[in-house]
Amino acid sequence: YSKTMHMSKQGIYDQLVSEYGENFPPEAAQYAIDNLEADYKANALEKAKTYYETMNMSKEGVRDQLVSEYGEKFTQEEADYAINNLRPRCWRTVDGCRREDALQGLSSLLF
To answer: Of 37, 47, 90, 96, which is least packed with CB atoms within 10 Å of its CB?
Structure first.
């Protein structure tokens, strides 16, 4: 769940104890969480990339999804790390790549 699905600590725990998931006893799930070597900031960043790049969500929307109790359940610190390390979106054009930050700079000149 951590390496392939980039889940948060709480998300993994919930999956392990869920009757619709693995249905482990809470003690077994907690033992697994306590002994799992995972980089939850990196997991948050990978999840953020998915929402930001493929679902075209705003950074604030991504942050909300990452920390939501109905979403990914990352900590605020993990979500902040992810948002602060997202690279600007890139759109392919005939003459290369137009980055989101360049487009924002251009729009500020036009409006």
So the answer is: 37
**Tokens 């003690």 -> residue:** 27
What are the E-state strand segments in 1-108? Answer: 90-93, 96-99
CA–CA gap between residue 106 and residue 100 (Å, rounded): 10
The number of residues making up the chain comes to 111
Of 56, 20, 11, which is closest to residue 38 (Cα–Cα)?
Answer: 11
Q: Around Cβ 76, how many Cβ atoms within 10 Å? A: 10
pLDDT of residue 98: 60
Q: Residue 109: what residue type?
A: L
Helices 76-84 and 59-67: crossing angle in degrees, nearest 10, is: 150
In tens, the pLDDT along 29-58 reads 999 999 999 999 999 999 999 999 889 899
Q: Can you list the pairs that 98-107 forms with residues at least 24 positions away whose Cβ atoms lie under 8 Å? A: none
Query: How far is residue 15's CA from residue 21's CA, in Å, rounded to a whole number?
Result: 5
